[in-house]
Amino acid sequence: MLTFEFHSPEQEIIFPLYAQNNVRVFVKRDDLIHPYISGNKWRKLKYAVNQAKEQKKQKLVTFGGAWSNHLLATAAAGATFGFKTVGIVRGEQVDNPVLKLCQLFGMKLNFVSRTSYKNKKLLFEENFGSDPHAFYIAEGGYSREGLLGCRDMIGELTRSYDSIFCACGTGTTVAGLQLGINEYQLKSNVFGIPVLKGANFLLDEIEKLGLCTGNLPTLLFDYHFGGYAKTNPELISFVRSFTSQTGILIEPTYTGKLFFALHDQISKGQVPPDSTILAVHTGGLTGILGLLDKF
Ligand SMILES: *Cc1c(COP(=O)(O)O)cnc(C)c1O
């Protein structure tokens, strides 16, 4: 099995808010798994990359926007485990630090119009249908394999938690956490914070991944700040103060919204007293490079 022999630590963080409400908060530091194959992106790639290896494929083909953490993770994972990589990028040709890093890891970039980007299977078929070495990886790692990789996080935990919070894009990570909780028959409540506006479709997407029986995660829809990668001064100031008080860097697109939501839920008394909470730091810190002008 191709993997990093690294279980990310669970670290307790301290804020007066937590003591006032009698809760303890731990952070699962998936941001420490790898600087560029970061956090949940490695969890979501792990089984797919292994499948590609087993099928003797040589080229990973995947999809993303111009600041995609998933593209960068795939580029770096490809370089690490001996695959060529191709990133199909949504929209007109651009240049930015994330795409530069992708290229540095050897990824070939192929920019496509927003219209043709909508049909990824077709794009793959047209460009790689006759290439026996090419292996398709879904945008954002949304897949059954991705779900199983995220589930594995639960098996690493060193203590029990009343609730587990994580940020949601495709919902694969929160679904995997819930699957792990169900499989291990744990009692933790799983909460997802969608970072997109109008994310009502997420529960369907989560069910489609196949959670079998058991609970579904609870989604808290009120923390998107206007939509994907949208921010406001309150969020930026939260990210700044959280980072300077914990030494744990977060960014506004995912983990900033996650911790903002957690603090808001605690301060509104939505988290029962005496709870022990796990917040998953899903990584993705290069995302901050596109938002530096907000700080
Ligand atoms: C991609 C990403 C997510 C979203 O994960 P999903 O499994 O798509 O819900 C969350 N946090 C970070 C930092 C990410 O890069």
Overview of this protein structure:
This protein is an alpha/beta fold and 295 residues long. It is built from eleven helices and ten strands. The strands form two sheets. A six-stranded mixed β-sheet has the order 1-2-10-7-8-9, sandwiched between helices. Strands 5-4-3-6 form a four-stranded parallel β-sheet, with helices on both faces. Residues 39-41, 69, 140, 167-173, 254-255, 282-284 line the site of pyridoxal-5'-phosphate. Pyridoxal-5'-phosphate binds at residues 39-41, 69, 140, 167-173, 254-255, 282-284.
**Small molecules bound:** pyridoxal-5'-phosphate
Q: Give the overall shape, derived from the CA principal axes.
A: globular
Total strand count, please? 10
| Most strands sheet | 6 strands, mixed
Structural class: alpha/beta
Low-confidence stretches: none
Q: What is Rg?
A: 19 Å
The SSE string, one letter per element, is EHEHEHEHEHHEHEHEHEHHE
Strand content: 15-25%
Number of separate helices? 11
State the end-to-end distance. Answer: 41 Å
- Multimeric organization: single chain
**If you average the pLDDT, what whole number results?**
96
* Share of helical residues: 25-40%
Read across the widest sheet, the strand sequence of neighbours is 1-2-10-7-8-9
Topology (elements, then pairings):
Elements: E1 10-13, H1 16-20, E2 24-29, H2 40-54, E3 59-64, H3 69-81, E4 84-90, H4 97-104, E5 107-112, H5 114-117, H6 120-128, E6 134-136, H7 144-156, E7 163-168, H8 172-183, E8 189-194, H9 202-209, E9 218-219, H10 233-246, H11 255-267, E10 276-281
Parallel strand pairs: 2-10, 3-4, 3-6, 4-5, 7-8, 7-10, 8-9
Antiparallel strand pairs: 1-2
